[in-house]
């Protein structure tokens, strides 16, 4: 395979670098092999580099000055990151360069001074003072107007808050009064309910005693009615039993008809009188009449059926005679 002269020349120039020449041969060979150089090209580059290195010990004046083709080499071979090519020598500056630089820096500094520094340290002009006074006055006017507006708003808020507080106090007072009324009403209702419960309990307890008393009273009244009925039966039997007169002559009977009629008229009245006395006597002894409806007060009268029976009994003896 033919040797590529351009690549071999670039590799030889790269190997001539002092930092590269001081590295081991194995590192240089591996680097060139990584750059796709063949073994023949590597040997040729090493040979050329070693030959030029020996020549570099000669005086610098005798050595030809050649510009290293860095640009051409950089197109094919890249050094390691830690390897840097030698810096080119900076050009020398004379007094003209320094004068130009001083002039430029002075103009630049003067522009900065006149633009930023001088307005800060320069005394204000009368127009600027008047403008500042006007601005300050306007700001004070705005501030005072804002303070007055704030004071008015504060007064309005205070009035509204006072009104709301008064209405709230009134509502709370009304609510408290309503609650007190409800409490008193509830207390009265509870008292009434308790009184009603007590009365109902008393009625429950008194009903059996009243029933017993009523039962005993009814029994006693029944006994009294029975006794009165017996006495009435006795009276009725006495009224129904006529007395048999002795036989007399017709003349005596004829003359005594008027007397008998008078006696028969008086007999019912006497029997009625006796019955009234009997009833009044029983009433005075504390016994109620069976027809008096259970009352023990008032005037006692003889029922009409008793009077009718008494009249009938008195009429029967007269008819028999």
Automatic annotation (TrEMBL):
It holds the Pfam family Pex14_N. InterPro entries: PEX14, Pex14_N, Ribosomal_mL64_sf, WH-like_DNA-bd_sf. Residues 246-284 have a biased composition (Polar residues). GO terms for molecular function: signaling receptor binding. The keyword Membrane applies. Signal peptide: none annotated. Residues 4-48 form the Peroxisome membrane anchor protein Pex14p N-terminal domain. GO terms for biological process: protein import into peroxisome matrix, docking. Residues 72-81 have a biased composition (Low complexity). Keywords: Coiled coil, Membrane, Peroxisome, Protein transport, Translocation, Transport. Belongs to the peroxin-14 family. Component of the PEX13-PEX14 docking complex, a translocon channel that specifically mediates the import of peroxisomal cargo proteins bound to PEX5 receptor. The PEX13-PEX14 docking complex forms a large import pore which can be opened to a diameter of about 9 nm. Mechanistically, PEX5 receptor along with cargo proteins associates with the PEX14 subunit of the PEX13-PEX14 docking complex in the cytosol, leading to the insertion of the receptor into the organelle membrane with the concomitant translocation of the cargo into the peroxisome matrix. This is Peroxisomal membrane protein PEX14.
